[in-house]
Amino acid sequence: MAYDYALVHLKYTIPPACILTFILKPLLTKLDLYKTFTLILVAFFATLPWDSYLIRHGVWTYPPDAIAGPRLFGIPAEELFFFVIQTYITSMLYILLSKPVLHAQFLTNPNDSSPKSRRIRTTGQALLIACIVASISLVGKGGRGTYFGLILIWACPVALLTWSLSGYFILNLPTSCVVVPIVLPTVYLWIVDELALGRGTWAIESGTKLGWRLWGSLELEEAVFFLFTNVLIVFGLVAFDRGLAVLYTFPELFPVVPEMPPPSLLAKAVLLDPIKYDMVRVKGIREAVQTLRRKSRSFYLASSVFPGRLRIDLVLLYSFCRVADDLIDEAHGEREATLWIKKLTNYLDHVYGSDNQPSSSMGIVKDFVEENFPESARSALILLPTKLLPSRPFYELLEGFKMDLSFGTRQRIRQFPIQDEEDLELYAHRVASTVGELCLRLVFHHSTAKLPSDKESLLVIAAQMMGHALQYVNIARDIIVDAEIGRVYLPSGWLKQEDLTPQDVIKDPTQLKVEMLRQKLLDWAFKEYERSRDTMSMLPHEVRGPLIVAVESYMEIGRVLRERTGVPSKTRKGRATVPRLRRIWVAWKNLSTV
Predict the structure, then answer these.
(1) CA-based, 20 to 30 A from 146: which of 9, 57, 175, 484?
(2) Which of the four pLDDT bands, split at 50, 70 and 90, describes residue 408?
(3) Which residues pair with 571 in a beta bridge?
(4) What is the Cα–Cα distance from 285 to 280, expressed in whole angstroms?
(5) How far is residue 594's CA from residue 190's CA, in Å, rounded to a whole number?
(6) 591 inside domain
(7) What is the percent of the chain where pLDDT is above 90?
(8) What is the pLDDT of residue 434?
(9) For residue 281, is it within any domain?
(10) Looking at the whole model, is its pTM more than 0.85?
(11) Which of left, alpha, beta for 219 (phi over 0: left; psi -120 to 50: alpha)?
């Protein structure tokens, strides 16, 4: 009995698995674990007969002084563990890199795919078929090409199946989500394998191998084996995510999706003819994601930890709010902006009707949107999940936009509607608390754990207070940007106490007195934040962490402003920003403590 092979695991495979687990622990969901362990079972039982065949036919051998002794179908226990640990490591790396990705946006069908994608998919199929034919020939001939042929005949049919089903999806995914989880573990295992072969921990019999080496003791067959196994793992994970994306993206096709979709439902989603995809909805989701990435990096990062359909609906809601805000902010003059508010009001009237209930005639709503809004805004309005949301917060949001417009001029005298603290709170309620309440309504709808009405009411009140806090941070951040367009959201009463006027702020928004008022506003923000933060513990567990991350990511902007006293070292269009690594740390830290 010896432990040389076991030491390979202790030194080289278990440590990276532990590190990845530690990094991912706050982000891992039950669905991630379900996906990982399902793939481990598939990999284990798919590799078991193939590996047993290699050992029984003398392709692989293990010196007695390198293994502990226990075997299953001739396979040493250490080798069986390798099936598990390699799949686990590659899966954890894939999940880590894929967390920020909303997979729904990458669904496609042949009609939506580019000619280049179609050519690559067809070429990949042809190459894999050629490899299968070659593998049959190599195994049939025996001799030095046996091991290489056995690798190809085992791996290529599975790779061909997953590539044929999910090739377009794989090509659309970010390179980092597919290539890195394949290449990084492969190169690492090449190094481990080279060390193990050099030490004689395992060996390939000379009569069944080509005898070509990449470097040192690393045989070509071993290099190809680890490459193919990681390709199969990643392709399997991608296929799983594609199935989930189909289930979550098309509620008309799959009205009810369990928290842990059974394999039969996933298989149905994966095998669904892509021609049946609602590509208008998919393209709208793509546009919503792009809007978030441009306009709200904090919310975009936070959205990555929301589950399933809730994440999609939140992205669509936030996209609508940003698009509506842009229509008004980017209007040419007050008259055009007022016209957009009127059109948005008419849109809500069409959607909710006279009884304030979502309209069942979405065709009428679609026609109205196409006639009255630019193409860039249409999907945000058409895909807004109004059936799940009350109308009141939307109308209040438009009232907030009207307050923005009241900064216009009358008889050459500029108006400043935020006169006192009451006006400030009213404005924050209209433009931020309304959005917080709408987000919470989506949470209540999608949550598997239904809350009593009294708890829902308390959470709505807390969401409204948190909306005040987030908007105060937003105002504090944008003092310079707002001054450039002639707006001052600091209460005029506060300015008067410092012997300032709104015009003084517009002329020099960086002066010390303005900075003092910024800090006063941040104090207000953190006071409202502290009043509502503890109530978030009442949220359903599956959404508590993601919502806390969304709040804390934005409040971190306030902390940056406090630390840098209004002169941040990094700005974007005059706005303070939180460095990417710090945002990631905030998310990780808060998810760890939930």
Answers:
(1) 9
(2) low
(3) 576
(4) 9
(5) 39
(6) yes
(7) 62
(8) 96
(9) no
(10) yes
(11) beta
Distance of CA 438 to the CA centre of its chain: 20
Whether residue 248 lies inside any domain: the answer is yes
Task: Choose one of 237, 253, 276: the last residue of a domain.
Answer: 276
Which of 244, 276, 308 delimits the end of a domain?
Answer: 276
Q: Report helix, strand or coil for 425.
A: helix
> CA distances (Å), 412 to each of 43, 208, 337, 408, in order?
74, 91, 19, 9
Inter-CA distances, 553 with 294, 463, 579, 591, Å: 16, 15, 11, 12
Q: How many CB atoms lie within 10 A of CB 318?
A: 23
Structure tokens at 407: 């900064």
Our count of domains for the chain comes to: 2
Q: Residue 455 is part of a domain; what is its CATH number?
A: 1.10.600.10
The predicted-structure confidence for 549-583, as pLDDT tens digits, reads as follows 889 888 999 999 988 764 443 444 556 677 778 87
**DSSP per residue, 361-396:** -HHHHHHHHHHHS-HHHHHHHHS--GGGS-SHHHHH
Separation CA 402–CA 396 (nearest Å): 10
Instruction: Using only the alpha carbons of the chain, give its radius of gyration.
Output: 29
- Residues 118 and 265 occupy one common structural domain: yes
- Identify the band that residue 240 occupies on the pLDDT scale cut at 50, 70 and 90: very high
Q: Is residue 434 part of a domain?
A: yes
How far is it, in rounded angstroms, from Cα 558 to Cα 204?
A: 61
Interatomic CA distance for residues 204 and 492, integer angstroms: 81
Q: Give whole-number Cα distances, 366 to 93, 249, 379, 383, in Å.
A: 42, 19, 9, 10
Find which of 139-143, 181-185, 441-445 is predicted with most confidence, using mean pLDDT.
181-185
- Pull the structure tokens for residue 277: 């995809």
The residue range of the domain holding 523 is 414-594
